Amino acid sequence: MFSNIEKYYENVLMIGPDYLSPKGGIAMVLFNLNKYVFQGKMRHVANSCAGSRLKKLYVMIVALIKMFFLLCVDRKIKIIHIHTSSYNGLRRTKYFVDLSNFFRKKVLLHIHGGGFVDYYKANKRFVDNCLRKTSAIISLSESWKSIFKEQIGFEKDVFVVNNIVAEPIMRETEPDGLLHFLFLGLIASDKGVFDLLKSLSIIKTKIEDKILLHIGGLGKTERLVNDIERYGLNKIVKYEGWVSDDAKIELLNKCSVFILPSYYEGLPLSIVEAMSYGMEVISSNVGAIPMLVTDGENGKLLRPGDIDGLASAICEMTNNSPKYNEISIMRAQSFMPNEVSKQLNNIYSEIIRKVS
Description:
The protein is built from 13 helices and 12 strands. It is an alpha/beta fold. The two termini are about 25 Å apart.
């Protein structure tokens, strides 16, 4: 056991997406929290899922009913720890905040969405109303904590909890003479994956027979496959589909450079996970990513949408052939289960003290 957090197992009810087969960043955080911090005993109500809008609405309604009855019968629950993104995620979250308030429970709003500030600017009254009903915010970094305090003006406590990743499972891989790059995430324009393909098309004659980019994830997969074909990148890019478990561990060990040219991010779990395996990173300088990646030390930071800069960074990495980055390893340590357990233990202890 990492800390004394086990004494709060019965006091905390987690609200967030279904994490049994995680296919998103927040779901993966919950999966890791349950497995590595709560030792499989995390109390959780799933308020969202993958699928159609109708299915998501059904899951949300069932979650509200389940939460209502839990709070009616179980007086040990003192903290409602709600994980949310922005946009529809926050609108869904408000119902659970209101229900928590009805039962006079302390609400920890754990905000993961990289687009939160933009959403706040467009929906200030709604967001302010939701935040007023929470007891504290959990942010992903000190820089985001400053945003909540200074830009948004949240007057209550803002705590920082790092996104949790599992300890790396290191394996030997058979060398093949190629430098392997990796993208893991939602296949969508906002993640920059189509910019990535365009950048490769610019430099493909320079890097053919030198690199292989592995892309894993779900989303606009038809467009992805079509763009790979249209740009003539079949020898350079391999679409892996959704990867998890052993397939994911194999890719994390095989690849040397992680690429995430997103337009919006909070603190992406995928980058931390890649860094824990010693990978260098090419990424956009958005959200809390500059806290993890420093130019010339463990990667390269670019402006979102900088296709030429992305092409140049890939060429530079190809020429330098990075193998194992100690700085990435070191910076990933604070995201390991032991550290995250300590962070949550301190927060729950503070909130419980105020309840008593």
